Amino acid sequence: MREDVVDALKKCAVALQYGNPRLANAEMGRVLDLAEKEFMPRTRRLIGYFAQALACRAYGPHPKYFSFPSPDWKNSMCSRHGLFGCVSRAIADVVKGKPKRKVHVIELVNHMDIHEQWTTILCFLPDCRDLTNLRLSFLVQENVEFSKESEKRLIEIANNGGIELEYKIIPVNSFTDIDVSLLEMRDGEFVVVNCMFVFSKMLSEALALEKVLLTVRDVIKADIMIVAEHDANHSQSDFLLRFDESLKYYSSLNLEDPFYPDFLKLEAYYRYQICNIVACEGSNRVERHQTWAQWKSLLTHYGFSIDNLSAERAFSGNDWLMNWENGILVSRSTEREKQPLFFIYAWKTSTSPFKSSGSNEG
User: Fold this and answer.
1) Residue 354: what pLDDT?
2) Angle in degrees, 0-180, between the axes of helices 148-160 and 114-124, rounded to the nearest 10
3) Buried b / exposed e along 331-347 (16+ C-beta atoms within 10 A)
4) How far separated are the first and last CA of the chain, in Å rounded?
5) How far, in Å, CA of 41 to CA of 271, rounded?
6) Are 358 and 238 in contact (CB under 8 A)?
């Protein structure tokens, strides 16, 4: 995104923040004029998304920009960046050479097609000879059902890899109120809790994330917890700082990739995120992405430590970089700097003492 466009967007945001509607309208007009002159379609659309978000902040939300995109956005994003392969790697690592060869994966499901997700993950697992039984428990906050065809496909992929598969869908009103008895915990199973892009959405509700983490640690007693999140600084209360960080982050994402068929699904979700981050405040702002350093500090505080993953799945291609530091950090090189984008790490219960903070970020 060109500097003159960024300058106009920032001046419009500043005018809104300090209650100067005339200046905001003037700068918005400049933004739209510059957008028309932008040669790259993806950049032109991105400018439009930030302009729409600022308009929604000024005049109220528009349903067109605040409706949640199709549930398969997460599959598109995770497949695009190889994150599902990392989940498979983590599961393979925890059972390798260990007496526990039965794995129970408890998935916190939030707006996604879990059939497509686990079809992809299972395709990476057949080379894991130490895994004999895999049980999947899906904790879902909405109606999610497998078709008979989907069931057959999942079982077929698992059986081809020599894995006996069973799964269960468990509806929950909230991840903070999990009835653990429904998980039917069994002796001799290695318990993995999989959390793909769900924790950041809990930061808008006081104590929500703390309750979930303590349940995972003290009640479910997971052997490992896999966490994938955006690596960004979008959780701060200062609107202007948040707006500046979001400009850097989404300008670094390649919103148009002709070689990737699902880029439109991803773009629809990023559009939703931009509107939520820029236009919303309070509990309505649910896209509260934090940096890897912030997440590391928070999870360490709640009694977790990093469980090292092997680097067999690491790769870098084009301008996407995947760096391993006992887990995976996805970033993109820009003309000026390396922009962090996502991370995925496995966590285990730490032996360090823990005290509840009694608070969460609002």
Assistant:
1) 43
2) 10
3) bbeeeeeebbbbbbbbb
4) 31
5) 15
6) no
**332 and 319 Cβ atoms separated by less than 8 Å:** yes
Instruction: Name the pLDDT band for 357 (thresholds 50, 70, 90).
Output: very low
Contact (Cβ atoms closer than 8 angstroms) between residue 327 and residue 346:
yes
Which of these, 230, 335, 348, lies nearest to 300 by C-alpha position? 348
| Helix axis angle, 239-252 to 41-59, nearest 10° | 160
Asked if 72 contacts 115 with a C-beta cutoff of 8 angstroms, the reply is no
Residue 218 pLDDT exceeds 90? yes
Q: CA-CA distance, 130 to 182, in Å (whole number)?
A: 27
Beta strands in 115-261 (DSSP E): 133-140, 164-171, 189-196, 224-230
Q: Any bridge partners for residue 343, and if so which?
A: 229, 329
- Bridge partners of 102, per DSSP, are 133, 189
Opening angle at CA 218, ends 213 and 220, nearest 5: 85
The number of angstroms, rounded, from the C-alpha of 116 to the middle of its chain's C-alpha atoms is 16
> Does residue 5 sit in helix, strand or coil?
helix
Which residue type, as a one-letter code, is found at position 196? M
pLDDT tens figures, 101-152: 789 999 998 765 677 778 878 887 756 667 788 999 999 886 656 667 777 8
CA gap 246, 50 in Å, rounded: 9
For 104-114, letters b (16+ CB in 10 Å) and e give: bbbbbbbbbbb
What's phi and psi for 167, nearest 5 deg?
-150, 160
Tell me what the mean pLDDT of segment 91-106 comes to: 76
The per-residue pLDDT for 206 is: 84
Backbone φ, ψ for residue 166 (5° rounding): -140, 150
Q: Is the pLDDT of residue 253 over 80?
A: no
Q: How many other CB atoms are there within 10 angstroms of residue 153's CB atom?
A: 16
Predicted TM-score (pTM) of the model is 0.86
CA-CA distances (angstroms) from residue 292 to 74, 111, 159, 168, 244?
19, 23, 37, 32, 18
d(CA 297, CA 199): 14
The one-letter code for the residue type at 268 is A
Task: Report the DSSP beta bridge partners of residue 340.
Answer: 331
pLDDT tier, 51 (very low <50, low <70, confident <90, very high otherwise): very high
